[in-house]
Amino acid sequence: MLKFIQNGGDIMSLIKIENLTFSYFSSTKPVFDDVSFSLDTNWKTGLIGRNGIGKSTLFKLLLEQESYQGKIHKSVEFVQFPPNHLDFSKTGIELLEEWTAQEDEWKVYRELHQLQLDESIMDRKFETLSNGEQTKLLLAILFTKENGFLLIDEPTNHLDVNGRKIVSDYLKSKKGFLLISHDRDFLDGCINHVISFNRNSIDIQSGNFTSWYENKVSKDQYEFNQNEKIKSEIERLNKAARQTKVWSNKVENTKNGVKISGIKPDKGHIGRLSAKMMQKTKNLEKRQQKAIEEKENLLKDLERTDSLFLRPLQHHKSLLISASELSYRFGERKLFSNINFEIHQGDIIAINGANGSGKSTLIKILLGQYLDYIGELKMANHLEFSYISQDTSFLEGDLMKYIHSQGVDETTCRTILSKLDFPKELFDTNMKLYSDGQKKKVLISISLSKPAHLYIWDEPLNYIDVISRIQIEELIKEVKPTLVLIEHDQRFVNHIANKIIQI
């Protein structure tokens, strides 16, 4: 069953997936249809693909959380990150005892050191830790499991830039894992193989995200050029076929024609000409069919990256917001102090800071939700805002009703969702059943549909697939709306922002 290969002294075990077929009961379209591939447990593998294409579903099948057809062969124990049914009231020590052997306790302290965590974190209740601390602690514990092969789903969500770098470096030091992430810099820092779930195929390549994406762009461009070439060839063949048919009809009419100058037509000669024309027609048809088949094999995996659209409002003033010596306290704790900044029309501003530094609080102050700040905040009159919340848990019920409640145009919103590869069947599905990425796309589409002077986005890209990130990135670069955002995808920020507010 399992195949072991000796290579340079290392024994490599393969995870083999054979004829995998799976569908959810609520969907008529299969997630996997007779899929086969394998991966080496020594690979540091990034799993890439659009939201809803089956990445997290594959994890569920590997963990035997869903029934499927086909076979999965493995010599390792699959370990899930983040774990299901996590007891937030337990301490790190208690979680370690629950999930690993007692003799492995020393190993977790080694892992904590690599993740730049103090050992005292093991004595704290999980619920008291920051999001970044929780992520790092769980990774440290789970990587101590003997014979464990981690299936890591979106570890970077809510991690600040520094935290992402630490976790990326940590994963790079590990033997092997399977990782779902949409952060391009994070992937580049820790993986050496890519499995991409395409529209109609699964592709496996060595390298990081950047090398995979460069190959994909090159392949897509080649197929597009070939497609255009074959289209021209098919049109030329169609034209030749039409001309041949005209000639064939003329020859056939001559065969039964009248005498010319008293000479009767040579039917034998005409018959030979007719047969020759028929053969030529058959040859053209064969070439046409071959060209059509070649064309059908192209562009099957080409991602639709249709341009998104955004129509920001223009304000009569250039300076929209100014802050002077802005400070905020949460109880006895000072989140930030003496911040100064200006927001002009056309500015794209990223708010940077560690987890818990008050970035989201600053956004809520700009939105007028917190008024008990210290310092001076001046805003232009009659500002219209468009806001994306970090939280998506409140989304449930009918999508169309929710769109209408937000006061945006339904057609515009649906069009943007479609451009973000949002499945049509979800338009009539309760939002409670959406994936986190699909919920986030709903919030993004509503924000883009709303004309505003100032767009304020709090971690808009959490759970959003790479292709959609690139679409949003290109839109912002082209339209240049006035935008203030919190986002830890450093490549995205570097590509769009012209100012930084450092907290």
Question: What is the correct CATH architecture of the largest domain?
Answer: 3-Layer(aba) Sandwich
Tell me the major beta sheet.
6 strands, mixed
CATH class of the largest domain: Alpha Beta
Beta-strand portion reads: 15-25%
Low-confidence stretches: 1-11
Shape descriptor: globular
Q: Assign a percent range to the helix content.
A: 25-40%
The total of helices stands at: 14
> How many strands appear in the DSSP assignment?
18
CATH level 3 topology of the largest domain: Rossmann fold
Strand pairing plus helix content: what structural class? alpha/beta
How many whole angstroms does the radius of gyration measure? 30 Å
Q: Between the first and last Cα atoms, what is the distance in angstroms?
A: 55 Å
Number of domains: 3
CATH H-level superfamily of the largest domain:
P-loop containing nucleotide triphosphate hydrolases
Strand order of the largest sheet: 6-7-8-4-9-10
Mean of all residue-level pLDDT scores = 88
